[in-house]
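[User]
If only I could read backbone structure tokens as easily as an amino acid sequence. I have put the entry right below:
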Amino acid sequence: MKSKGNIINAVGRIGIAVLTLGIMFFLFGLFENDYKIFVSIGIGTVVGAVFIFLIGVFFVATEEMLAKTNKGNKVIPIKSKKGAPL
């Protein structure tokens, strides 16, 4: 569980950093007259930060589910009778 906590913390920190950068771009583009392109860049960056966080949470949940499931059934080969095709 320790490694899963580290992954969640790392994804959260990266997500917050990118989210903060996106909000700064958005606000700069919104309040400055000549930089309207930064509004769209800020919106894209904020959406990207949300996707980064959701994909990280999905990876941790997938890893946890794989650790809890069985790894499959044991296959026992069938012995054939003499002269019978398999």
